[in-house]
Amino acid sequence: MTITARGPKRGVTGRVLPGKRPGRTLAEIATVLVAATIAFPLYWMVLTAFKPAGQIQSTDPRPWTLSPTLENFRQVFTVDNFGRYFLNSVVVAGVVVLISLVLSFLAAVALTRFRFRGRTVLLVMILVAQMVPVEALTIPLFFLMRSVGSVAPWFGLNHLGSLILVHLAFSLPFAIWMLRGFVAAVPTELEEAATLDGAGRFRFTWQVLFPLVAPGLVAMSVLSFIHAWNDFLFAKTFIISATENQTLPLAILVFFKPTGNDWGAIMAGSTLMTIPVLVFFVFVQRHLVSGIAGAVKA
Amino acid sequence: MSMTTDASTNSAAEAGKPGSGPPGSPGRRRSGSAAGTARLASALVSPTLLVLAVVVMYPILAALYQSLFVSGQRLDAQGFVVEGREFVGLGTYADILFGPAAERFWNAFWNTTFFTVVTVTLEAVLGMAMALVMHQAFRGRGLVRASVLVPWAIPTAVSALLWRWIFAPDGVANAVLGHQVLWSSQALASKIAVITAEVWKTAPFVGLLVLAGLQVISREVHEAATVDGAGAWRRFWHITLPLVKPALVVAVLFRMLDALRMFDLPFILIGQQKDSVETLSMLAFSEATNVHYGPAAAYATLLFAYVALIAFVFVKLLGADVIGEVRSQVPRRGGIRSRRGKGSAR
């Protein structure tokens, strides 16, 4: 609903009250300090990535470098199949986002706007799915994927499908819970009006409901993307022998050596791995806050 | 029921209805198509349920089953080596809770609990503070808001690596402190390292959820309180906090569910099989990689039960009306009325 999308902005633009100047300056200073504290580790990561080898491991680390170098990045790109790893990560995260978008929307619609027996039980079951300690269940999942592989090779071990399936399952519960608020916020009168105008349930869902729920879908897709992109454990467990199907975090592992870790390259790889998330994030940042506002409001 | 002030909850039958309409709206599509509705609903939910059943439900049930057996090589009563699986019932659980494995289990249990309590408390306080600051109007607010959220958007594996680098023996943390701390081997220091990294990463997320809650509080309430002579502290304690409570409770609930399952941060930041930071998830993983499937499955089951118990108690105690919240919600302009309703109902 437009209320959902506009509510937050209204609250913000009307914030400045007369006679509140000192408090505002204080808040500005506090904000800058908070932002700086939060940003420092990130700065350190990027800085290390650009430092020449001699300056990285030093007893007196300096918060700047006078001789920035791209050597560490070059190191990362020379890892065999680096481009392939990157592409694999993008494919897994992208497919997870698309499928979870559709599935969680359908489920949220059914669980919010339809009244049927067992609805509450379903909702609780979905919440409980969020509580399952997946990392602790890596091994049962490993065996599961091995048997799945003999039936449907695409979803078996060593295939990206196994990662997609797993991350889909982990992002769906929270996505559904979040979207429920948005779907519920669309007034039922709209549906009645649409029905009077001759629109069926499907037309209403796709042409009216879907666009109105869009901010929630954006917020949800960010969460799913980050979740799938973050993964390290499952990529490490499921993709055992097919190196061409490994994902990005495993490319960084190459720089951990018994003889001493190559922190310059590790930080360069980490920087590269962070960039796509940030780009995605910057694009949807505005919608994200109002999106989550909608879910919380509900 | 979460809403006390709203007219749409005028009858019990109405209240249980999804997206129950505003006052006066007639019951819709009730008769005749009830079976059709159920069929359509199950068609819409079934893909999700299928995925969850395969990837979430099957492994936890498999773990439950597997935890009743021991496998691998061991000696039988006569001293012979036996192979294969043997049914031991709840024996593995007894070993874990009271027997030879108890020490490691309880250590991991307390680590998990300690990390959860400390990080979630810090995140709630800092997230609240960040949200209050971000809520103020000033130039460049959008930029600050985006930058504050960046740590949350960074992959956990990357942030664990980053903090491992910061907490390295010759890293920047020691340089700033001017003191040699062995972050990866001293018990308390490694706990502090994990907590710092975790709070850095997720406090912004709590801040974002709380900010979203703050933005629906209407300005008039604060103005009215100011006119009535309420100071900033009183306004925060009696207006802001109760009104953002639903948002905060949901944020804290989901954070707790995540924190209890903490795995990759201590795993990458400090390392495997370190008593000081080993969580239950790490313990289960480590047992499984040592081919102790029975105990690993038992750890996973116990952790799941623990998470479910905490979630249940939390929801009961704090009245996070997670189910009813959506059921009763009605879109309205002045969000304040329904909010107040929710805040007062418990």
From TrEMBL, chain A:
It comes from the Bacteria. The keyword Transport applies. Coiled coil: none annotated. Pfam families: BPD_transp_1 (PF00528). GO terms for cellular component: plasma membrane. Residues 86-284 form the ABC transmembrane type-1 domain. It is found in: Cell membrane. One of its GO terms (biological process) is transmembrane transport. The chain crosses the membrane at residues 25-44, 85-109, 121-144, 164-187, 208-229, 263-284. Keywords: Cell membrane, Membrane, Transmembrane, Transmembrane helix, Transport. It is a multi-pass membrane protein. Belongs to the binding-protein-dependent transport system permease family. This is N,N'-diacetylchitobiose transport system permease protein. It comes from Actinopolyspora xinjiangensis.
